[in-house]
């Protein structure tokens, strides 16, 4: 099967072709071999985890994925397809984003004819680790970022977002609070209510977060920076930093706004106990006017999966 939109070509284990190259991706990475610019990277994904392939300016590399164990769902403009052991896909170059979801724990090989491992593993991974460290300092658990990402992706997929939007949402939701690295520790770790001055400083984490991601120079992170900057905006204009109203806010930002608010209510913090799910849903209902109505409709539709 060929997806002319993304440029990816599917090869079944029962229909091999000559001269296929190997390639692979996932959450746990290991550079298996490299030479003459080509890299072979082993990936391991846990069930339910997501990974994506994206185009980039000046990128003309051959990319190839070969399934070793488990199964992987490939979401593209032509629908969904399940990749099994022995299946492969390739593109040269990939033209649009493609999303992959681990249906089971799985492993696969990702090969690129141009080097990607350093930027792929180091840059994004370091930002993600930094984000987790920041959230823990802010009183959350290490699971907070993953919870925000997983729930955001759940809503985004049910809302029918495009592959491009889902890739942006994946990065933006996980890194939504990266700007807090620039907030002084005495404010970030304060257990009580902020003064007006302290709150004005805290609010700057949205614009600072966008700058941090923009300065990486990586196209996906630069786009995700818009989500980071807007995730505290509200549909009724009561949010920050720009008091955007209605559909002026990016839809991915609107999703993160809902999920982040819900998680903040249900999370146990140093200064408050966790609120039971049923009470949290009632509180979200009372505040429904603040959030995008399409997002809230799907949020309550999926309440049993939260």
From TrEMBL:
Protein's UniProt name: HD domain-containing protein
Domain of life: Bacteria
InterPro entries: HD/PDEase_dom, HD_GYP_dom, RmlC_Cupin_sf
Matches recorded under SUPFAM superfamilies: HD-domain/PDEase-like (SSF109604), RmlC-like cupins (SSF51182)
Lineage: Bacteria, Bacillati, Bacillota, Bacilli, Bacillales
Domain HD-GYP, residue spans: 119-306
Pfam families, alphabetized: HD_5
């Amino acid at each position: 099967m060929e997806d002319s939109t993304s440029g990816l070509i599917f090869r079944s284990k029962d229909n091999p072709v000559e001269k296929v190259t190997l390639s692979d991706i996932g959450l746990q990475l290991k550079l298996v071999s490299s030479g003459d610019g080509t890299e072979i990277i082993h990936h391991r994904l846990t069930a339910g985890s997501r990974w994506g392939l994206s185009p980039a300016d000046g990128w003309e590399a051959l990319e190839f994925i070969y399934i070793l164990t488990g199964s992987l769902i490939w979401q593209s403009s032509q629908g969904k397809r399940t990749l099994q052991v022995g299946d492969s896909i390739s593109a040269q170059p990939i033209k649009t984003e493609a999303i992959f979801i681990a249906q089971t724990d799985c492993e696969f090989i990702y090969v690129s004819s141009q080097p990607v491992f350093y930027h792929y593993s180091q840059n994004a991974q370091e930002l993600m680790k930094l984000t987790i460290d920041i959230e823990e300092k802010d009183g959350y658990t290490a699971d907070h970022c993953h919870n925000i990402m997983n729930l955001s992706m759940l809503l985004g997929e049910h809302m029918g977002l495009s592959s491009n939007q889902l890739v942006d949402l994946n990065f933006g939701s996980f890194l939504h609070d990266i700007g807090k690295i620039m907030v002084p520790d005495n404010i970030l770790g304060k257990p009580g209510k902020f003064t007006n001055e302290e709150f004005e400083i805290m609010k700057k984490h949205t614009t600072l977060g966008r700058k941090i991601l923009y300065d990486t120079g990586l196209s996906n992170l630069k786009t995700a920076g818009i989500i980071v900057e807007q995730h505290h905006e509200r549909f009724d204009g009561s949010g920050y930093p720009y008091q955007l109203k209605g559909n002026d806010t990016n839809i991915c930002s609107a999703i993160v706004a809902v999920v982040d608010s819900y998680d903040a209510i249900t999370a146990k913090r140093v200064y408050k106990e966790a609120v039971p799910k049923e009470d949290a849903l009632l509180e979200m209902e009372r505040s429904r006017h603040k959030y995008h109505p399409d997002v809230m409709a799907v949020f309550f539709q999926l309440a049993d999966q939260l």
